[in-house]
Amino acid sequence: MEYITLNNGVKMPIVGTGTNTYGKENNEFKGALKNEIPELVSALELGYRSIDGAIMYNNEELVGRVLAESNVPREELFITTKVPANEEYISSKEATRAAIDSSLKNFQTDYLDLLLIHFPIEDKEQLKNTWKVFEEYYEAGKLKAIGVSNFGKSQLDELKEFAKVKPAVNQIQINLKEKNNELLALLEEEGITPVAWGPMKTEAHQNEVLDEIGKAYGKTGAQVLLKYQIARGVIVIPKSHNRENQAANLDLFDFELTAADVEKIESL
Ligand SMILES: NC(=O)c1ccc[n+]([C@@H]2O[C@H](COP(=O)([O-])OP(=O)(O)OC[C@H]3O[C@@H](n4cnc5c(N)ncnc54)[C@H](OP(=O)(O)O)[C@@H]3O)[C@@H](O)[C@H]2O)c1
Questions:
Q1: What mean pLDDT value characterizes the chain?
Q2: Annotated catalytic residue 89
Q3: Which DSSP symbol is given to 78?
Q4: What does the pLDDT read at residue 204?
Q5: What percent of the chain has pLDDT over 70?
Q6: Pocket of ligand 1 (CB under 6 A)
Q7: pLDDT number for residue 49
Q8: Residues 91, 100: contact at Cβ < 8 Å?
């Protein structure tokens, strides 16, 4: 596994697995919870160590149980979760503390590697209070890194006004439909690492070109797609319910795209 060093020195695996439909009936986001996640077991066996969770996914406890039952040492894991921008979690500092304490319990751990605010918080006071609690837990060593998700420029600017600790990452949609190039340039300037959610989303005509590029390396179009993002400094957290695809999404480090390939992908 390769890592990116975040702005506070913490190392984050460059490929992780999403979990938003894991352990759910019919692999549906809103599906009823089951009692097991064979896909997560499979991902850990294949070498995934970065796990992207969220309170909103409603499966933290189950994911935490599967992680605890695996033989993977805690220090090898990189656990991310996210506090929703809902009143229940951000109406007071106490509410945010309770959310973080509950996540720590769900993941059966005394620290999380990364905690994010899941969506922008409109109310300035609530944003400030939430971030202050994040900083409090960060300083206590219970959060190794803190960051945001789905924040645009104006929301990052707002945070800057009072943040003592700069967000380490901004997890945003990045794929060939939502390239987000302007925001990526801003994040680079600010030293905030981009994490791509929904990295696999493409349109049919794009897949043909990606597949064609992949042929030269014995790779699939999906692998080309992930490699393209990684090569420009983006962490990816693809989610798959299929072991073969899970394996393919880790098998990205034995080839390099040429400048001509990149140009082709960027023109799609
Ligand atoms: N912060 C946020 O607001 C936010 C929002 C959405 C998602 N997320 C996070 O980001 C993670 C990833 O996003 P996502 O699940 O929405 O979408 P995604 O990872 O872009 O796409 C998942 C789809 O891609 C397919 N796939 C995966 N690898 C493949 C491969 N090698 N070849 C062909 N198809 C492949 C999967 O099908 P198979 O199962 O058949 O492989 C699945 O249908 C989520 O699980 C979640 O943790 C965060």
A1: 97
A2: no
A3: E
A4: 87
A5: 100
A6: 18-20, 52, 149-150, 171, 197-201, 222, 237-242, 245, 248-249
A7: 98
A8: no
104-123: pLDDT as tens digits: 999 999 999 999 999 999 99
Q: How confident is the model at residue 63 (pLDDT cuts 50, 70, 90)?
A: very high
Tell me, rounded to whole angstroms, the distance of Cα 193 from its chain centroid: 11
- Write the CB contacts of 255 (distance below 8 Å, at least 6 apart in sequence): 217, 219, 227
Domain interval for residue 189: 3-202+234-253
Q: Taken in order 135, 117, 80, 13, is the CA torsion positive or negative?
A: negative
User: Of how many residues is the chain composed?
Assistant: 268
How far is residue 177 from each of residues 18, 53, 82, 212, 229, measured CA to CA in Å? Answer: 19, 23, 24, 19, 13
- Beta-bridge mates of residue 193: 169
Per-residue pLDDT of 199-222, as tens digits, reads 999 988 999 999 999 999 999 999
Place of tokens 């040492």: 73
Task: Evaluate whether residue 68 is within a structural domain.
Answer: yes
What CATH number did the domain enclosing 62 receive? Answer: 3.20.20.100
Atom number, ligand 1, closest to the C-alpha of residue 241 = 39
162 touches 156 (CB < 8 A): no
Domain count, the chain: 1
Q: What is the mean pLDDT of residues 166-182?
A: 95
